Amino acid sequence: MADRPDRDSRTEEATEKRIRDEIERGNVPVSREASIFAFAAGLMIILGFFLKDGAMGAAFILARLIDHADGFRLSTGSDAVALFGIISMGTGALIVPIFTVLVISGLGASLAQNAPRIVFERIRPDVSRISPSEGWHRIFGRRGQTEFLKNIAKLLAVGLVIGMLLQGDKDQFVNAVFFDPDAIPELIARIALRLVAGITVASLLLVTADVMLARLNWRRELRMSRQEIKQEAKEVEGDPLVKARMRSLALDRRRRNMIAAVSKATMVIANPTHYAIALRYVREEGGAPRVVAKGKDYIALHIRRVAEEHDIPVIEDKALARSMYDSVEVDKMIPPEFYRAVAELIHFLHKRGQRRAAIT
User: What is the pTM of this model?
Assistant: First the structure.
């Protein structure tokens, strides 16, 4: 009862990451009825195609050994090996096809449900597997009750099919016992084939329902609470508070570097207090003027203050500063549409510098 509130709080469907992690750990939906159905189908194939010919071949070789027992020497070990080889060849024609069909049917049942993968965690020792409380929960819990009901339904369905099939063959079997004993083996094989085929067909619907139920229960077991989903999102994407703090630190670092670069600017274009763009243009460096810093409000005032401290010209042009702020990027050259306006400002500063030099 202690885990009931926690189970009831898991109302959300499992995320893709949760499903992927569980599959990687080997927790996949598996239907036991699918394996039983595959075994029955394999047994039907064996009875219908391999058992008769294989049994006849093995019986022929064994009868030959018994009828000519004096023709085989067993004086040495090599004689025993040779005799064993003959017997193996006779019985192999019966055993190998049976073994092959059963293996293929078992692998097919597993591959049809889930893709194969190697999961070492499944073979790791787990104390909970031998825990009495866990065993009690597995037997008498919801899953145990479901398995019990499925077994009851399966036994009823199989018993009904077997009863219906044997009822029709009862008289034929009794007649064979009293009037034609040689036909009993073939009759038994034919009845067995009909029984297995009937069981296989009858269990097909049960297997389909069980596969769907297994996947439904698996999804239900993987359900998550909202807190688990939030915690998973933090693990995948990072804590939002930490990410916000890191973004803030990175932004502060970029701002400090940008303000420090103002001292290398050629001029600052400002909209008195709201916008400021610091440009650097040195003919020897080549290219168009480059933006070393830009900002608005407090950052714009800071740019102007640093420019004034380093005697960098500050030109107030409201329209140009406003339009450039939305179009330029730091550490990039200005767009072509601003070439002419900026060139005029550079020419103006150049002529002003020449006049000051002449006066001096």
Answer: 0.45
